[in-house]
Design goal:
455 residues, alpha+beta, Nuclear Transport Factor 2, Chain: A, Glucose Permease (Domain IIA), eight-stranded antiparallel beta sheet, six-stranded antiparallel beta sheet, 8 helices, 33% strand, Murein hydrolase activator NlpD, hydrolase, NMB0315-like_N, M23ase_b-sheet_dom, signal
Length: 455
């Protein structure tokens, strides 16, 4: 039995061995050629570009690091040299000022521009500036292309404003308005014949004679009281862009020493023109100019009428100024009339008590909301200069009537009574002390050899 079991076990074991051999033989069948080729594929190593195009440098590594902790090799690319930019040569520029009677076309023709180019320049600049306002002293700058056409044209006009046209695929126009610098100036002169001549001889703005005539006309008789040798000291402000004056100079303080009386006038910086007048250091009155810095073009009295040609009584004074210049009330009061009065044109009238009235005529406009019965203070804007009614050009006709009768606006004292309370108090005296100190500092710093020299 035991031998039988042993033989059976050997038989089973042998069968299992044969089965294993058969299975092993099946697994060693030949691999298909395509599969074998795929298994043998390896990626190719990258080929470096030539050194003249891209230079690669191996970053040196420490040699004592074990192989399994060394960082990977880093390739550093050397930057290729930057290309050299071609610099265009500067364009030739032609410049000069406009002469009397010239047009922009004539100036551009002298610069060498063709008719078609001149028309294009005028069209571009005219979009931002009325070329009819071109006048002597304005400047023209022309930058030319190598072919002789315009690359850039600049028009330099008043107050430092520049209109520049750039020409490329299409014209581009821009306007530059500079921020002016406010400069304070002072001067001292002797009056020998008139305020105008004294200011002009000292190279100070002669137009200040009008301001002083308005301020002091009721207190000083400039024909009788000025015998020669009187001292006039003036401080003023100018707005400048470089060496160019922007707008008109503004008077800030003036002192007229007559020997036996010292008149001083201080103007505020708020643009109202509301000045305080002092006599020997005491407040005398407050006065607001109807048109600040305007030219006195016609005085009170009989004259040849500029339109009708006959001799007539001129019932006020005229101040020539640009259209649209602000017109201000000369004393506090109540608006008594706003409207039109025949040859006066557009008018505003202000009552200063029961007896005195001021009239402002030939106005181009009045503020919105200004109406009869409204209270106004000295220096309030009540209109703008115009040429309505019978007028030969833009001006303000300023009139003072007392009990209905016209009186000389530069000598009447009724407005002084209406306005004197506005300047009382410590504030006015502090303003005078500050103005005196500022003027003294300006004159001391300049220390001229010639007392008539502008400082």
């Amino acid at each position: 039995m035991r031998l039988r079991y042993l033989a059976a076990g050997l038989t089973v074991a042998g069968g299992a061995s044969m089965a294993a051999v058969g299975i092993a033989s099946f697994g060693k069948e030949p691999v298909p050629a395509a599969l074998a080729a795929a298994a043998a594929w390896q990626p190719e190593m990258p080929r470096l570009t030539p050194p003249e195009t891209l230079a690669l440098d191996l970053v040196a590594l420490p040699s004592d690091l074990p192989p399994d902790v060394r960082p990977p090799v880093v390739l550093a690319a050397a930057a290729a040299p930057a290309p050299v930019l071609e610099v265009e040569p500067p364009l030739p520029t032609w410049s000069r000022e406009v002469a009397p009677g010239e047009t922009l076309d004539a100036v551009l023709a002298e610069a060498g521009l063709a008719a078609a180019d001149r028309a294009e320049v005028a069209l571009a600049l005219g979009a931002e500036y009325d070329l009819r306002r071109l006048r002597p002293g304005h400047g023209v700058d022309v930058a030319m292309t190598p072919e002789g056409g315009p690359r850039a044209v600049t028009l330099r006009v008043d107050d430092g404003v520049r209109i520049e046209a750039l020409f490329g695929s299409r014209p581009v126009v821009r306007v530059t308005t500079p921020e002016p610098e406010i400069v304070s100036l002072a001067g001292e002169t002797r009056v020998e014949s008139s305020l105008f001549m004294a200011l002009d001889a000292a190279d100070m703005p002669a137009r200040f004679a009008v301001d002083l005539a308005q301020m002091l006309g009721g207190a000083v008789d400039f024909r009788r009281d000025l015998g020669g040798g009187e001292t006039l000291r003036v401080m003023w402000r100018e707005a400048r862009v470089g060496d160019d004056l922007v707008g008109q100079p503004e008077i800030a303080f003036a002192a007229l020493d007559l020997g036996d009386a010292l008149y001083e006038v201080a103007w505020p910086e708020d643009g109202t023109g509301r000045a305080t007048i002092y006599l020997d250091g005491e407040v005398q009155r407050v006065f607001a100019q109807p048109v600040e810095g305007a030219r006195l073009s016609s005085v009170f009295g009989r004259r040849v009428h500029p339109v009708f040609g006959n001799v007539r009584m001129h019932t006020g004074v005229d101040f020539a100024a640009a259209r649209g210049t602000p017109v201000r009330a000369t004393a506090p009061g109540r608006v008594s009339f706003v409207g039109w009065r025949g040859g006066y044109g557009r008018v505003v009238e202000i009552a200063h008590g029961p007896e005195t009235m001021t009239r402002y005529a030939h106005l181009s406009a009045v503020p919105d909301g200004l109406a009869e019965g409204q209270r106004v203070a000295a220096g309030d804007m009540i209109g703008r200069v115009g040429a309505t009614g019978t007028a030969t050009g833009p001006n303000l006709h300023y009139e003072v009537r007392v009990d209905g009768q016209p009186t000389d606006p530069l000598s009447d004292e009724r407005l002084a009574e209406a306005a004197e309370h506005d300047g009382q108090g410590d504030v006015a005296l502090e303003r005078l002390a500050e103005a005196r100190a500022t003027l003294e500092d300006a004159l001391t710093d300049a220390s001229p050899d010639d007392p008539n020299e502008r400082l």
